[in-house]
Design goal:
Elements: E1 2-7, H1 12-24, E2 27-32, H2 36-46, E3 50-55, H3 62-65, E4 70-74, H4 85-92, E5 96-103, E6 113-120, H5 126-151, H6 168-171, H7 180-189, E7 196-200, E8 203-213, E9 223-227, E10 230-235, E11 238-247, E12 252-254, H8 255-259, E13 285-290, E14 293-298, H9 307-320, E15 326-331, E16 335-337, H10 342-347, H11 351-370, E17 376-381, E18 384-386, H12 388-394, E19 398-402, E20 406-408, H13 422-430, H14 432-441, E21 445-446, H15 447-452, E22 458-460, H16 465-475, H17 479-512, H18 517-526
Parallel strand pairs: 1-2, 1-3, 3-4, 14-15, 15-17, 16-18, 17-19, 18-20, 19-22
Antiparallel strand pairs: 4-5, 5-6, 7-8, 8-11, 9-10, 10-11, 11-12, 13-14, 20-21
Amino acid sequence: MRIALLCSAFNSLSQSLFCALKDRGDEVGVVFAIEERQMRSEIEAFNPEMIIAPFLKHYLPASIYEKTPTYIFHPGPRGDRGAHALEYALRSETKQWGAVLLKANSDYDGGDIYAKATLEARETYKASLYRQEVTNALLGMLGHFFSNVKANDYIAQVMNPLHLPVTQEVRRIDWHRDKTQTIIDKVFCADSDPGVLDEILGVECYLFGAHREDKLRGSPKEVVAKRDGAICLGTIDGAVWITHLKAKDSFKLPATYLLKERLAGVKEQRLPLIFDKSYETFYEISSEWRGDVVYLCFNFHNGAMHSEQCVRLKYAIEYLKNTCKVLVLVGGMDFFSNGIHLNILEDSQKQGEDGWSNINAMNDLIETILFTDEIVTVASLARNAGAGGVFMALACDHVVAKEGVVLNPHYKSLGLSGSEYHSYTLPKRVGDEMAFTLLEEALPISVEKAKKIGMIDAVYDHACYYAKLDSFCQSVYSDDFIWEKQEYLENERERIEVLKERELTKMYPEFWDEKSDFHHLRKAFVYKTCATETPQRLKGRDA
């Protein structure tokens, strides 16, 4: 079937749907919902049989849905209508929520429903619920959706009133009345967009990334500590960490990067390199032991890794490899990894120097993974990964993934040729021709497709993923494997390092030349600059 995906941005949910439809065998083209004339022109060029809108910020013009059958995904159950659906779900503290695919008509979220699903409203922040439970609900209902469309089998929407707008006044934190949990709940409801508007040390900004603190105390809103870019603020009954801030008309940064010299005198409250999770606080790197297997978690915000984070993770691996036979890289709560930290590079006064430092720190980390030859390394792709994050996973001996995960094994959309040893690890698994295709097409792929082409080793389903992962990791070690690995790396080390140096030679001007594509593409990405048309690589054949 020829299907156009109409979306305000090609976000994680849209990419998951794109991959699922491609794996079904459909011809898929993406159309950005920018303005009516542009949408109509691009849709006519692609000539779809059906339009699915997985993510829209604005109401759809009649000229679109009256010409082509159009179905809108709404992250709310039957009867839920309007924007802020997930924010309302979290505010209501419901334990069960839903999602629907409905046919577009003149009523906002008022069309007939062709598929619906229920989902657990996990206690988490809005973006995490969207990236996991909501995305899984959409993928899970696709089979029923296409069957119902073919049979014209639907149920009517319940025409409840539209949600009222959620304003910053509704989200506002009252630091002298709100308890810690209330503050966390308010930040969770607006994370990762638009955040909670507040003022910290005289800076008007939006707050993101809330974590409870069990030990530190301070006066309400007093900055009592900082750690790894985050700040700890006193509350009436404890303290809370805020990891990221965004100044008005700017972009999100670790809190200390925005506040800078205003934090003079605030103590850095350090944790051990690998935190044991013995009390509630903000931390990024932790681990769990299960026999001879160690699971290493690195929960970096949005999967982005700046130089210092790469160094800490490298040291963690070097320490842990002496304590186990199998080391499993787990990544974070919502992403495995997405490579270098673009927001921090955009904020830098020395973008070339700091970018070069970041890519070399990433390479040093991956070198440690590649040449750790005393143990078996496994990458667990239970969450999405992109760019250097994908190639960090491929540096492991084995790569396993959870069904539905999306990979972006390319750099091209940001004007980079890429490093992270990709010119060694990718062809080693898929061959030169497929490696070239993946890098040049610059499209997301499902882990199911990645397994078919040999890029990863196994895909396990949601229900039993962690049990199967543990079973795999408990059985994967053998002395013979280690001996073969050591001999192979000894013979190949020089060639591998030559490939890395070629990568860096190609990347050097991309970082240091002020006119390189990377700089303006990075700025557009960080500032979320509105495109004027859909990127050609996403338009699909004949578009």
